[in-house]
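Input.
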Amino acid sequence: MIPRRFLPSLALFLSGCASTFQGYPSLAKRAIEGAPIAEAAPQPSRSAGAGADPECGPADRAGAGGGAAFDKAWPAADKAAKAASGSAVSSEAWVAAQTALSALESARNDSVSALASLDVLYVERSNAVSEGKVSGGIDMIDAARGTVLAIVDGQNDRLDVLKGRLAQP
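Output.
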């Protein structure tokens, strides 16, 4: 009984293998795959002797910019959340409030991204200091990180207040 079912299945499987697969890309190695890879130039070693760390500036400004964008989008989200307070999930007011919260989350993207950049910079600098490649600079990065962290924490608190007003699905 089993050979009767097995033979037709095997024949069908083998017929699929025998057909030509035209239109599918070749798995052969392409010319670009064998080309040499250009290496990035190493970053110069910096010591934090004079002035602020130049790597902190862009992230610090982005954090402040994200804070300003969040503050600008806040009134609309606050108004929508107040209007949707007590509304049922999926009601028109609730959906409008969720849309406004989404816009508010998007407005804070620069702040969160700046905090992540400063976190990475802090770890990289800490590692470089411990390896003896650079000296100092951790305090400046930590100060910039603290400023941006305060902005992001304030945004988180304000978002939690808005989300607390809305019914959860």
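Residues 38-51 have pLDDT under 50 and may be disordered.
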